[in-house]
Amino acid sequence: MIQLKRVQTDDTDFATLIDLLDKDLWARYPDTQQFFHAFNIVKLDANAIVAYENGIPVGCGCYRETEDGHVVEVKRMFVKEEARGKGIAKKIVMELERWAHENGYSRAILETGTNQPEAIALYTKMGYKLIDRYAPYIDSEQSVCMGKELSL
């Protein structure tokens, strides 16, 4: 059984999953991850989700408000390799969207990378559309930016 928990970004399970995500990203983008690392630091004011399968933390994600007060950026999406293919990432994204909508946000944006085709496929299936790369990813050829209106 999959359970989702809304947590603060200093949650121990969230931090452990973020460490695994960072290792995954370094393996996928060894030449450019140093550039992206600075943009992946999660601030304490972000809203985070941890997914548990039978009580074990297996996935996470969060969102933070952008400079446009009606838009959030989905960040730090990750599901452990052994838990993939079970719809956990979709559940996390749906809960992040629901939470953002509850807090009055009308749009979500995100950045993923060309070496993450599974993420691009997931977001596309969930209604995210390609958008122009936004700062700080404007000049990054490996960045894929997407957006979606939040109308739950």
From TrEMBL:
The protein's name in its UniProt record: GNAT family N-acetyltransferase
Segments forming domain N-acetyltransferase: 2-151
Listed PROSITE patterns: GNAT (PS51186)
Superkingdom per UniProt: Bacteria
Any Pfam family hit: Acetyltransf_1
Record CDD domains: NAT_SF (cd04301)
Keywords assigned by UniProt, alphabetized: Acyltransferase, Transferase
